Amino acid sequence: MSTKPDAERTSAPGISYVLDFEKPIAQMEQEIHRLESLQAEESGRDYGEVITNIRKELDRALHESYDNLSAWEKVLVARHPRRPLTRDYIRMITKDFCELHGDKLHGDDRAIVSGFARIAGQRVMLLGHQKGRETREKIESNFGCAHPEGYRKALQKMQLAAKFKVPIVCLIDTPGAYPGVEAEERGIARAIAVNLMEMSRLPTPIVAVVIGEGGSGGALGIAVADQVGVMEHAYYSVISPEGGAAILWKSGEHAPQAAEALRMTPKELKRLDLIDHIVPEPLGAAHRDPTTAAANIETWIGKTLRDLRRLKIDTLLRRRYDRLRKLGTAFTEARPTTDVQPASRPKTRRARATARN
């Protein structure tokens, strides 16, 4: 795998992590800060016009960069360490959040957050993946990779919500379910499968939003919903680009090609009718303006829940069933868009014999 870093540290104030394509943008931001500092320190000096011109150039650069991101660059933005996490959104868009813990069987998985709350004036059951911000929190929450008890915890809270006729809101941000031996021993595959089945028939509205990474079954375990939205610079995929590259090309170096082939960006997902809505992000993505990003999520969730709550439960369940049955109907196979060919599998003894004949 290539050792070239996808991002590097910078001393720009408020910016601790810069992606490769953001380097020119970071330089302009550093220059603005330098001029503002000089203006504050040196009385009688006015750099206002210069700062204004640089800000205009900065806005143009942000538009050009973020309007033309490749699939791999979208993945890098979705993984940005300063991108808002589930608990950040809980602080910004909810009121009266009352967290609920445990699966009543094994333990309390910190990778899944759950609890009653109010969003846009509506009472909801909120569930979401939590990756963690600091090292200790990341370790405690398994970097957002839930164990079986996390999915059992989520299902129990959703069933509680259905009992009291409370809508469910799911915030998805995970590279995938926890891949360790202990998770397999405790039945991770079954836990996710049960969630898929039970969520498909819960008699209450369900809304899901991919706020960062939407990886594989780990994401699907809380993503069966009446309406699914994906943030503008998030991704939703059956496998991570690195995982796909390792399978197809036997090397993680080809993750950018795998990201393109997987059609994991919001525009591709919407074109294939796999999601219902793309939630817009502020200029420069959510990590530059978390407050606006949170407001956009809250607005979409509020409007979507109001529309869903007008439906009778029988109608809601029938539409959910129809939505699930139609998934994939817009998909068409296409030739690979890259010149790099996947590694061929070794022929079996039968295949070699057939070829000789």
Essential attributes:
357 residues; alpha/beta; 2-enoyl-CoA Hydratase, Chain A, domain 1; 2 domains; eight-stranded mixed β-sheet; two-stranded antiparallel sheet; 15 helices; 45% helix; 15% strand
Describe the 3D structure:
The protein is α/β, with parallel strands linked by helices and 357 residues long. The protein folds into 2 domains: 19-68; 77-326, 2-enoyl-CoA Hydratase, Chain A, domain 1 (Alpha-Beta Complex). 45% of the residues lie in helices and 15% in strands. It is built from 15 helices and 10 strands. Strands 3, 4, 5, 6, 7, 8, 9 and 10 form an 8-stranded mixed β-sheet that branches. A two-stranded antiparallel ribbon has the order 1-2. Strand 7, helix 9 and strand 8 (227-231) form a beta-alpha-beta unit.
Topology at a glance:
Blueprint lengths: L6 E2 L9 E2 L3 H19 L6 H19 L4 H8 L7 H8 E6 L12 E8 L2 E8 L5 H6 L7 H16 L4 E7 L6 H5 L2 H12 L6 E10 H5 L6 E5 L3 E3 L3 H8 L6 H7 L4 H6 L5 E3 L10 H20 L3 H14 L22 H8 L1
Parallel strand pairs: 5-6, 6-7, 7-8, 7-9, 8-10
Antiparallel strand pairs: 1-2, 3-4, 4-5
Helix pairs in contact: 1-2, 3-11, 6-8, 10-11
- Estimate percent helicity: 40-55%
Quickly name the level 1 CATH class of the largest domain.
Answer: Alpha Beta
Write down the domain tally: 2
Number of helices in the DSSP assignment:
15
| Beta strand count | 10
Mean pLDDT: 85
Outline the biggest β-sheet.
Answer: 8 strands, mixed
Q: Per DSSP, what share of the residues sits in E-state strands of 2 or more residues?
A: 15-25%
**CATH topology of the largest domain, what is it called?**
2-enoyl-CoA Hydratase, Chain A, domain 1
- Name the CATH architecture of the largest domain: Alpha-Beta Complex
What is the molecular shape? globular
Unreliable sequence segments? 1-15
* Distance N to C terminus: 40 Å
Radius of gyration using CA atoms only: 23 Å
CATH homologous superfamily annotation of the largest domain? 2-enoyl-CoA Hydratase, Chain A, domain 1
Q: Secondary-structure element sequence? A: EEHHHHEEEHHEHHEHEEHHHEHHH
Structural class comes to alpha/beta
